[in-house]
């Protein structure tokens, strides 16, 4: 092909492109139906395509930045400002550049104008790394570099007197002098951690393993409010994996809290929030968003699921509590009982004030310390612990009793009953007793229509033998076993018991014997140790998805007097 040189006279050019074609005719890129034809179908030497069949569609694109919608006419527009014969590009990661302005009153848009005749750049200290984030506030511009935070006045400048006092005055400078904030802190390479509310700006500095707040009083390490070691460990692990790790920040305007999500493939992801009213970190969450922001007094997060970005509105009353991005989790709280820390104690009970629906997942004593095991191949750490204490509702159960006369003699695990009396259906797992029944045989299933009962083992009995069935049915099995969700039987509780508007339970030790112990396991009541670590969580059945409150938790303990 021969080359051609086309003179460009104006910025405002038009491009004609074929959108759809059919038939045998081939498109001609330099003309179409609708462009006036000249003599013999020619216009300026370019052929024109017939559109007799209505099969051709064309699109007209305008190259101007600002064009009028449905304009009936056009003009040449503005001529080219300048042509640089030898264009050279440079990359300055620590510098700012500004263009012309957009005048909303006149409609003049000069945001694409970068005058080479004027000094339109402003550079920050290159020793502090690249500029990661800019935030404009009133007449101030906050500049976040990797290793430093600075500010600069916009369209103003600061004049200092001989005594050191400062005054702000109007200036023809677009960006004034860049002044650094006190403290060797930056935003590292995580501008996504930035969030703002009012005059407070929150962000992370993974290089220094801290979370910061920038306000009128300067920079403050809010990670030092009880969480210094936590963020040191989490951010140092994340800092080594910036290619896949990210630190997402957002302000929850609903609860007035800063939310930060530390996500990395090398370490466990964490999402938690900072409350200015409590001056501390108050909660952890089981969601890890791609973006977080507030709009019109509501808090939103964005999460990519299956390649699709999904928007999630938090605190929506139509969504169960503890549900984030379609996944429901239990709420939990972990705390420590540590009265008289220098004395050994036995914690005997646990009680709480609050809503029904809390369960005790664990109650763990402090460690006895590393002890060489019997085989001398390693060390063991001994703890006292308990089994899970069910909530008031999930721990509820009833006792069922039944009896039936066998139809014939049998040596089998299947028995046919001709008469039977139950307080409901035969309980799966209920103990079977009678003449010829070995100990430990229980009900596997029972068909109330056919009278066929299946046992866990063979039954050797004579015809007409009376069998009895005794067992417990939990609330979760009421309907499946008894055919009703509310059987007319006395209720018993294997977990928390409600008394005087408190929920109480005794602590049963379920640990194995350790060296030197005389009584151990279920033979003793309580957890022995200097302190106890307790975890309470909401169950999944008691008014699921509703609000649960927890006002206080207490334990009755006795001193061990050195034993």
Report the portion of residues in β strands.
35-45%
* Mean of pLDDT: 80
Q: Using the alpha-carbon principal axes, give the shape.
A: elongated
**Domain count:** 4
Q: Which radius of gyration do the C-alpha atoms yield?
A: 38 Å
Category by helix and strand content: mainly beta
Unreliable stretches (pLDDT < 50, length at least 5) are: 28-39, 41-49, 160-164
Number of helices: 2
Main sheet attributes: strand count, strand direction, barrel closure? 7 strands, antiparallel
Quantity of strands, as a count: 45
Q: Fraction of residues in helices?
A: under 10%
Distance between the termini: 100 Å
Oligomeric state: single chain
Structural features, described:
The longest helix has 12 residues, at about 230-240. By secondary structure, the protein is mainly beta. The chain has 4 domains: about 5-80, no CATH class; about 180-330, no CATH class; about 335-370 and about 380-395 and about 495-560, no CATH class; about 395-490, Thrombin, subunit H (Beta Barrel), CATH 2.40.10. It starts with 13 loop residues before the first strand and ends with a strand. It has 2 helices and 45 strands. About 5% of the residues lie in helices and about 45% in strands. Strands 33, 34, 35, 36, 37, 38 and 39 form a 7-stranded antiparallel β-sheet that branches. Strands 9, 10, 11, 12 and 13 form a 5-stranded antiparallel β-sheet that branches.
